[in-house]
Amino acid sequence: MIDLRLLREDPELFRASQRLRGEPADKVDELLRADEERRSATQRFEAVRAEQKSLGKQVAKASGDERAALLARTKELAAEVKTAEAAASTADEALRRAHLAVPNLVEDGVPPGGEDDFVVLREVGELPTIDKPRDHLEIGELLGAIDTERGAKVSGSRFYFLTGVGALLQLGMLQMAIAQAVEHGFTPSITPSLVRPDAMEGTGFLGAHASEVYRLEADDLYLVGTSEVALAAYHSNEILDLEAGAERFAGWSSCYRREAGSHGKDVRGILRVHQFDKVEMFSFCKPDQAQAEHQRLLAMEEEMLAKVEVPYRVIDVAAGDLGSSAARKYDCEAWVPSQGRYREVTSTSNCTTFQARRLNIRYRDADGKAQTAATLNGTLATTRWLIPILENHQQPDGSVRVPKALQPYLGGRDVLEPIR
């Protein structure tokens, strides 16, 4: 949720943010009205409740006609209090709905526009020259690493098996990610894949992205699309000690996405699938440290991409493609030779105080007062990385060169040979 106090002080700031996102600015005005109506209803309830308490004390001291008059007024007030309490409750719920409808305030400098209006910040690495490159699925089948036919037989479309060196390659890549995170002071964590509705709502995944989420109706639980959800909710309703700096986690989990609305898109191979594994970084910090922490997470992602030796670019995502929780987002896109284009492999978002306000995550400032914390997240490695690794390191005979940093995780092998 956005900061209501800041909204009251500068509503135009939020209207401008909405326009950058391509969202209706009148959502801001609806929230302002709901806020005013809630405050008015609350004041009315508190006033009649205070009068009721005052009358109760007077009745105890009064007698005769005065007592009778006070008792009559007390009966009237009881009805007024009940009505005012109901009105306050209704106004409070209306405010919550209006509050949830307004996305995070966009950070200064974010490019305006939609999905295609990103700004390229830098390109890193030399694009390989490969004559008639095989795609990752063909390479994976030659290596006995990827089996989508049996994945579809067992589970349906957009499922797969990683077998042999495919399984080893993914496990090695994720282990390397965890090792790097620990080296940088992150706490490794294996997180739940099922979470309660308040965790999913608190992180902003039940708004525009609700159609992407699998829900287990019988248990009222959701399958996460990222361990960000569980890691964010880990400290819900808590006050953190951030005096020594940010609290950082690296979460390893299986992730699930319905891929609603993507019918016919990227159906070949493992680019857009329903289940994958990922190591996700997550940070809790003071709000004035959030921008620096964001750069730290981005640097961590680039360090991992350097280790797997693939060319990539970093983009500053446009406001209309941020999602509701992010104030700013940077994506790293790896080069995919078979497609002759860059594809997203990491994303890191600064969610400022948006998620923490929903989840009631706070810290104490220098004066001992509880303040809302900031949260950030970033991908450190995921199943999709197998695509650029296999394609950029392919050899004419169908073998694949193993990046040096990954070789210890594959028994020291420097080349993966075809088995068929």
Return the structural class: alpha+beta
> Share of helix among residues?
40-55%
Major sheet size, sense and barrel closure: 8 strands, mixed
Strand order of the largest sheet: 1-11-12-13-16-10-9-4
Sheet-strand content, in percent, reads 15-25%
Q: Rough shape? A: elongated
Q: Radius of gyration, Cα only, in angstroms?
A: 27 Å
Distance between the termini: 54 Å
Residue-averaged pLDDT, rounded? 93
- Strand tally is 18
Poorly predicted regions: none
Q: Name the helix and strand elements from N-terminus to C-terminus, one letter apiece.
A: HHHHEHEHEHEEHEEHEEEHEEEHEEEHEE
Oligomer: single chain
Helix tally? Answer: 12
Structure description:
With 420 residues, the protein is of the alpha+beta class. An 8-stranded mixed beta sheet has the order 1-11-12-13-16-10-9-4. Strands 5-7-6 form a 3-stranded antiparallel beta sheet. Strand 12 and strand 13 form a beta hairpin. The mean pLDDT is 93.
List the helices and strands and how they pair.
Blueprint: H1 4-9, H2 11-21, H3 26-61, H4 64-100, E1 119-124, H5 136-143, E2 146-147, H6 148-155, E3 161-162, H7 165-183, E4 187-190, E5 194-195, H8 197-202, E6 214-216, E7 221-223, H9 228-233, E8 238-240, E9 247-256, E10 275-285, H10 290-307, E11 312-316, E12 328-336, E13 341-350, H11 354-359, E14 361-364, E15 370-372, E16 374-382, H12 386-392, E17 400-401, E18 415-416
